[in-house]
Design goal:
The chain is elongated and about 75 Å long. Helix 7 links the parallel strand 7 and strand 8. It is an alpha/beta fold. It has an eight-stranded mixed beta sheet with strand order 4-3-5-10-6-9-7-8, with helices on both faces. Strands 1-2 form a two-stranded antiparallel ribbon. The protein is built from ten helices and ten strands. It folds into three domains: about 80 residues, Arc Repressor Mutant, subunit A, CATH 1.10.10; about 100 residues, D-Maltodextrin-Binding Protein, domain 2; about 100 residues, D-Maltodextrin-Binding Protein, domain 2.
Length: about 290
Amino acid sequence: MKWLNYHHLIYFREIANTGSIAKASLKLLIGQPALSAQLKQLEDELQTKLFERKNRKLVLTDAGKVVLKYADEIGLLGQELLQIVQEKSFATKTILRIGALDSVPKQIVWEITQRARSFGNCFISIIEGSQEELTNELLLHHIDCFISNYAGDISRDKSINSKSFVKASVSIYGPKQYLSCRKNFPKSLNGIPMILPTHHSKLRHDLDYFFESKNIKILRELETQDTSLMKIFASQGAGLAALPDIAALNLVREKNLFKIGTLPNIKEEYWVISSKRTIDNPIAIKLIKSI
């Protein structure tokens, strides 16, 4: 039986992540000649080239990309093993890595994580990023899935799956001083400062179309992709905010925001994006099937 050297995989991952033996040697505190020798031993063991040099940078070959996927999984399992032994918690936990766009309400992220916990003993890691960043992380298998309010062209990639799991009504919210806008809504929004999502979101296009079709001239006060920032600005009186109802629940209960009116035929749709994996995460599979 052939054996792989665990250290070889760690060194290989660092070289792949930095794109340079010199940078990897500084981070690993290992001399460049020794690190090059370790990489050569791994390539000899696997009988394949893992890198090719392009513009003075080491770039993964197709074989290298496959090896990196396995190296990442093995590295995570190694960290999980250390954590379990150190904490003397011998009930094995599955690590579930979930990404979320800033535009996804935190309530939705909470509900997804709670659903995941119901399928087994797991440790959940959550990262935020843009659609492009999270798609790259997904394809590199650094995350198991991510939550997005935009599927778009992503569904054309055969290696990526997108599954819609909720469509939320969208309403206009604001602090108490805007309660008079409830009368004659939505015409009452004429000349009112508005906090909007950014242009790359579908919701923004739907809102622009709605206001234009109804001949409503809002004042575009500011825009942000982060729904948490929208709620903060709105509650501080900067203007009204167009928010999915699910995103405003807590602030409405606390009376920091008030619903002015619901926008007809406008919904914010949320998706779980996943990809085909070499090593499947059992919690991720159950989570996606349940949606």
